[in-house]
């Protein structure tokens, strides 16, 4: 089994066992504090945002990749553990599903508490939302965050780990003595996951029309999320046994301002036949009813299944990729 596959398995195990570490010790929260320094008035806000968009995710990638490489240089298994921890910290599934279930349950018992807790899932004003609209936001958020918070970083990790593992042996004469190609693949994969998570974090904090400094993070996030959003939609369609939902989602893409989030949201809306609405922004599958508690619970379960498939897919990709460059 490759080091990268071990890292994926460890990340899944940690997510299942821990969910997420407390905010005060979470490196993503630390990164968020750095991003917060960009959120101010600048003479040239777009230029400041562009500079930060280049520098901050690159710094995060170099830091994470460097730690994994150093651990792997000491002991390959230590590198796999470091890579698994890095992947765990840049992905999220259990916490997403847990909060979604909690908010869904609260919509039937305490709507004010449901509106308050929704802030952990969706960045919108929930003060006037009905119970149905809160559940709509839950379904939208779990579908979109599957792509943002899991498919994107895991996909970057697997793609870079496999790519580096294939390329490095092909130029073995140029590889410095003592460099383990499997460790190099692991380190680049972890760096890629950290870079993607950093880009997404900057977009979530700054990527609003009211913040000119967020123009560059938002545009870069649009590019980075193009593939993960569509892969996420495919995974949702598979988890709901509804391949036709992908076709239906295409009909509603022009109703969603984002070039990417319409795919997973539209797919889940079609698959469980519910209306998803964000007042003043979009209305997906408008002829269907808004989600009931049972609808939202079903959506959460299916996204959970799609998330598990994401881990399995990343693990298989790194395992098969390791075989390819071992046999080469």
From TrEMBL:
An example Gene Ontology biological process:
cobalamin biosynthetic process
Query: Pfam families, alphabetically?
Result: CobD_Cbib
By what name is this protein known? Probable cobalamin biosynthesis protein CobD
Q: How does it sit in the membrane?
A: Multi-pass membrane protein
Per its UniProt entry, which superkingdom is the organism in? Archaea
Name its species: Halosimplex litoreum
- Protein location: Cell membrane
- Any Gene Ontology CC annotation: plasma membrane
Q: Which UniProt keywords apply?
A: Cell membrane, Cobalamin biosynthesis, Membrane, Transmembrane, Transmembrane helix
Q: According to its UniProt entry, what is the function of this protein?
A: Converts cobyric acid to cobinamide by the addition of aminopropanol on the F carboxylic group.
Pathway assignment? Cofactor biosynthesis; adenosylcobalamin biosynthesis
Q: Report the sequence similarity comment from the record.
A: Belongs to the CobD/CbiB family.
According to the record, the segments passing through the membrane are 47-70, 77-97, 150-168, 175-196, 308-327
Main localisation: membrane
Higher taxonomy: Archaea, Methanobacteriati, Methanobacteriota, Stenosarchaea group, Halobacteria
| GO molecular function per UniProt | ABC-type vitamin B12 transporter activity; threonine-phosphate decarboxylase activity
């Amino acid at each position: 089994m490759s080091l990268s596959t071990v890292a994926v398995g460890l990340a899944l195990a940690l997510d299942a066992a821990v969910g997420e570490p407390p905010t005060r010790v979470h490196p993503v929260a630390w990164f968020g504090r750095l991003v917060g320094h960009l959120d101010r008035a600048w003479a040239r806000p777009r230029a400041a945002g562009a500079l930060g968009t280049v520098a901050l995710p690159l710094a995060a990638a170099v830091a994470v990749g460097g730690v994994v490489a150093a651990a792997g240089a000491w002991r390959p298994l230590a590198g796999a553990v470091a890579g698994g921890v890095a992947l765990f910290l840049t992905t999220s599934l259990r916490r997403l599903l847990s909060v979604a279930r909690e908010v869904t349950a609260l919509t039937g018992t305490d709507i004010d508490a449901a509106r308050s807790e929704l802030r952990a899932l969706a960045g919108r004003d929930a003060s006037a939302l009905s119970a149905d609209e809160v559940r709509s936001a839950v379904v939208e958020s779990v579908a979109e965050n599957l792509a943002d918070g899991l498919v994107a970083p895991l996909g970057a990790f697997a793609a870079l780990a496999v790519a580096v593992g294939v390329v490095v042996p092909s130029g073995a004469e140029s590889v410095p003595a003592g460099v383990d190609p499997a460790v190099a693949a692991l380190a680049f994969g972890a760096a890629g996951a950290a870079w993607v998570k950093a880009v997404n974090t900057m977009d979530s904090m700054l990527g609003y029309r009211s913040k000119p400094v967020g123009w560059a993070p938002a545009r870069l996030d649009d590019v980075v999320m193009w593939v993960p959003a569509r892969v996420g939609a495919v995974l949702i369609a598979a988890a709901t046994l509804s391949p036709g939902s992908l076709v239906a989602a295409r009909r509603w893409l022009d109703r969603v301002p984002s070039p990417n989030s319409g795919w997973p949201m539209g797919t889940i809306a079609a698959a469980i036949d519910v209306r998803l609405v964000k007042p003043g922004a979009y209305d997906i599958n408008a002829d269907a009813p808004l989600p009931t508690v049972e609808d939202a619970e079903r959506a959460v379960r299916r996204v959970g299944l799609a998330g598990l498939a994401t881990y399995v897919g990343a693990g298989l990709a790194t395992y098969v990729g390791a075989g390819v460059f071992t046999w080469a």
